[in-house]
Amino acid sequence: MADFRDKVVYQIYPKSFRDTNGDGFGDIPGIIEKLDYLQGLGVDYLWLTPFFPSPQNDNGYDVADYCAIDPKFGTMADLEELIAKGEERGIGLMLDMVFNHTSTEHVWFRKALAGEEEYQKYYIFKDGIPEQPPTNWQSKFGGSAWEYVPGLKKWYLRLYDVTQADLNWDNPKVREELKEVLRFWKNKGIGAFRFDVINLVSKPERMEDDFEGDGRRFYSDGPHIHEYLKELVKDAGIEDFVTVGEMSSTSLEHCIRYSAPKEKELSMCFNFHHLKTDYKNGDKWALMPTDYRKLKGLFMEWQMGMQKGDGWNALFWCNHDQPRIVSRMGDEGIYWRESAKMLAGMIHFMRGTPYIYQGEEIGMLNAHYPSIEQYRDVESLNYYRILLEQGKTTEEAVATLAARSRDNSRTPMQWNGEKYGGFSEAEPWIPMSAGFREEITVEAQQKDSDSVFTFYKKIIAMRKKYPVIAKGEISFSETGTDMVLAYERMLEGQRIVVLCNLDRKKQDIKVDGEWGSYRILLGNYKQREIDMEKEIYTMEPYEFIVLGNVEEM
Ligand code: GLC
Ligand code: CA
User: Is 61 in the pocket of ligand 1 (CB under 6 A)?
Assistant: First the structure.
């Protein structure tokens, strides 16, 4: 099995990364242009979100053809060049496989709509009348999860947008088609895959109303999920690949099974529980300050649980669906730099494989769009309407989007201080973040030895240098406050201790006698020492420290 423990994955949202032909839309040549930058940062894999032909109703997660490139992004020759040039730099590509659903523009769905029964069996169609959807399940983007096709007198299931029809994995032909897709990309030289909402693909045979929730309890980690995953990975011949599954509303028990090597399913899992600690009653659209007790508890539970079960976590704060972490749990003002570094370090030293989302390495902020006109995301536009229907004012609805919209992370990458941040010479498809400033650009931070960027470079290099980070055991220490997280990593004689103050205020922690023999390996404040004579160490706002008995970098 490929070793993925000492690797770091960098996620690229091609649409917003770099536009080379002046159409305001990022492209594959733009990624090629930035390969030296990525090599300099030190990452091993680039996860590219979908660039396949797509009507772009969900920014490419509505795939119309799994084995081609959307001309907006470039050509197959561009991708082949990217694969080859990546390889020269020791950088592999991780492609995003959206196998829960296809676009309704996909030829399979078009044939289904045209009445071909064989292709209707590729999807989840149910006979019915227009007034009565088969179940009361809700779409993740709002509204019913079912769409009626009058011509066929049938409903089809769509857990996401109306133009994203769920595939029927119980049909062996569908599973064969998807294996073919993996083989196609494998033959092109791709060595890693991310599987989009993969734990939703196995639906229950009998579908019933959900009187407790939106239906997710029936199809998340569904009845045949482990069996289907094993089959897919084995038959496509990707057991040795680096693979990560995006797991929606999952459980620790299932994630252990998805990622424990002996199960031969996936290398690792994304779960989102830690990113729901600021959801009021679990509702993404109901704002609440982060519950730090819960946040800490979840990290401890998942880290210890996955370790015990021999599973493996994908470590992350940011992606193309999440608000920027510095805006969310850090500070956009005077502690911007400190909090960005602390949040980075907090997850990068845990047990798992870290993921960096484009712009995170320079501490990019939320979009702060002043009105609905700036938003592009289908989920945001749907929920804006729903919030108004619920009686919210436009100000309230805009404030909710400002905190929760997926567009917060989709603003153009900030390469330099030009009008469009060096992303494009033309007006970008989505406006720049209102938090865009000179300080938060690649160009400025590459020159600054104290920048967020330099810090990311350092923590990536440390993972390569000290096996204890990639392979050590983890344990957590009691700190007496919800605002300070402390953990230790151990491998043979090597030990490191990681201290994170999540608070905007100072926090006192008890000094551990053992630290006396440790050096400070990394921190986000200048020249701090822990006075071993004192019992208490006062951590500065958002302070982050790594101590250890390994030699200094
Ligand atoms: C995943 C993707 C998200 C997409 C959804 C449906 O959650 O990350 O962007 O909208 O799946 O494909
Ligand atoms: Ca372009």
Answer: yes
